Amino acid sequence: MHRSLTRLFPWAAAPATLLAVACGGGSSTGPAPAAAPVESAPVALVPPTTTTEEKPPAPAAIEEKPAAPEPSPGPPPEGKPYREMALALLDGPPGTWTGEHGNYHSPVREVWGAGDLLFAATADEFLQSNDRGLTWRLVKLPPSAQALSVWGTSPDEVWVGSKNVIYRSTDRGVTWKTTSVPANAYYNGFWADEKDVYAVGSDGVILHSTNRGETWERQGETLGLRWLYGVWGKGRDVWAFGDAAPKDGSWQSTTALVHTTDRGKTWTLVNINAAPLRGICGTGDGVMHIIDSSGSIHQSKDRGKTWAKAHTFGPMELSALACRGKSEIFVGGRNRTFQHSEDGGKTWTDELAAQNMWTKLAYSMVDTIFALPSGEVFVGGEGVYSPRPTGTLFRRR
User: Fold this and answer.
1) Residues 395, 369 contacting (CB under 8 angstroms)
2) Which of 56, 117, 331, 334 lies most in the core, judged by the most C-beta atoms within 10 Å?
3) Which residues are CB-neighbours of 14 under 8 A, at least 6 positions away?
4) What DSSP assignment string belongs to 206-228?
5) Is 390 within the bounds of a domain?
6) CB of 126 closer than 8 Å to CB of 384
7) What is the pLDDT of residues 60-105, one digit of tens each?
């Protein structure tokens, strides 16, 4: 899921120039300097010698060569050339972060993976790693496709959300099939179990599939939802979250949390005293966690029936949430906010700040956090803003 679409679409477009970055380093976009003119070496004149029956040499034939053809124009923006390496991250010691603030040329929206395979949706391209996030290369999605979200159940079942379309891969991202959707939307999030697949997006769209995303049906059209950022489930319970349209018809959004227990046949609104929601997950201790756009995290210990505010990080928008294991939680947001708890949210630590990874002052945002069950954690989002917005991706082993 991605929270920054309301800022990026449809009135803003990210630059479409790929910068190859190695080891989290910076890049340069300036033109190459013009080559200095080269002067011809002087030619020495040798006086002719007199010989008998000397004949002047025949003039050398001048071979006319055709003029060089005009250079062909470059590919259109949607046909960017394939490059093997897009980004590389060092493999640091266990527990340390590698990467650099602003190490990619466009914001990183979402990261998902399984085992050694990972995908990253950025504002301009779609990236894939086959070595647990050490090196990343471009993936050729269908022409004009722009990845807004990525999620899967295994390396052989991955979905990518885009504008008005959903792509599905069953071969580790080698090929991508376009699925037919019944509603136009920016598709921001997915969730699935062994029977059902859900997709959510803008305009309150909720889609449900019973055949692994081959076909979709729309649900929850009467709920008054405005913009859904994601969907998550556990057992028979599935929740979708985001913004709702206020009943008085005003422009300002209200909180939206909807719940189903019957495979999406019915959806009900859940009462929660919070700002519009930006993320949801659950830990192994049975506790559910939700973050909102005003800087708070809320918890439920009764399968989402009631919610209580657990902690406030400050007056900023939170935008990324991940849970792992019994009690590990990661939270990210604006102002370079990245917090980590290993005790279910009782205490929090900013690991990137503690390891001096925020090396460049900038008003930036953490948009995605993904934690592999076996160890690696990835933090992605926006980078430095000068001379233009860039992206950031950190990795911890």
Assistant:
1) no
2) 331
3) 8, 106, 107, 123, 124, 389
4) EEEESSTTSS-EEE-TTS-EEEE
5) yes
6) no
7) 444 444 444 443 333 333 334 344 678 999 888 998 899 887 889 8
- Residue 26: per-residue pLDDT: 39
What is the number of domains present in the chain?
Answer: 1
Q: What is the CATH number of the domain that holds 375?
A: 2.130.10.10
Q: CA 361, 364, 367 angle in degrees (round to 5)?
A: 145
Amino acid at 247: K
- Write the pLDDT tens digit of every residue in 138-188: 998 887 788 999 999 999 999 999 999 999 999 999 999 999 999 999 999
pLDDT per position as a tens digit, 245-274? 776 667 777 899 999 999 999 999 999 999
Tokens of 158: 């991955």
Hey, which residues does 292 pair with through a beta bridge?
277
Whether 233 contacts 191, CB under 8 Å: yes
Q: Does residue 49 lie in a domain region?
A: no
DSSP state, residue 365:
B
352 CB neighbour count, 10 Å cutoff: 24
pLDDT band at 1 (very low <50, low <70, confident <90, very high): low
Residue written as token pair 């991202």: 173
Query: Residue 201 pLDDT more than 70?
Result: yes
- Tell me if 44 is assigned to some domain: no
Secondary structure (3-state) at 78: helix
- Sign of dihedral through CA atoms 103, 104, 107, 113? negative
Domain range for residue 357?
A: 5-20+83-396
Q: Is residue 77 part of a domain?
A: no
This prediction has a pTM of 0.77
Tokens of 267: 């959806």
| Backbone φ and ψ of 8, nearest 5° | -90, -30
